[in-house]
Write a structure and sequence with these properties.
This protein is mostly helical. It is built from seven helices and no strands. α2 crosses α6.
Length: 193
Amino acid sequence: MPLPPLPHLTDFDHRVLLAINHARTPTLDAVMTFASQIKVWFPFYAVLLGWLIYHFRRRAGRLLLLLAATVALADSISSRVFKPWAARARPCHAPDLAAQLYLPDGCGGQYGFLSSHAANAMGLAVFLLLTLPAGRFRALKIGVFGWALLISYSRVYLAAHYPLDVLAGWLLGAALGAGAGWAFRRWDGVRGV
């Protein structure tokens, strides 16, 4: 069942999408295409996982299990529940927008609500914010939120998602990350590294 049209939100979504998509440069094309590619995340995530294992030591198993569950649920819920339910075409598949869009990375699957990239990245960021000790590892916390914002912005820049698709992905990811962070603190019984 497709989402019912909401003219004011649709107009806002289209205007913001076009403003971001049309603010293009060859450098931004390269950066945004790079940030959206899943394969480029693997080295970053491998280093992050190694760092978490080193710092959490024997507690790393619990942490990594909940982190993996957060990302897997964010991806599954966004792709298998919301996208088919909402049936909202990606901007690059929308008949009224497709001709106006610049697509440096092509066009993704048919549906875009809500953004899996945004949900996964925000779930990871919120989970780490809540599980890493307060007052420590500030650069890492800022870095994962910066990474989540870059990935999310890239999805709109590349016209793979509307801004509200990204916002909805953030909300889903944040809720799952917060739930997993709460579960880790309860399960672990200890705050911090």
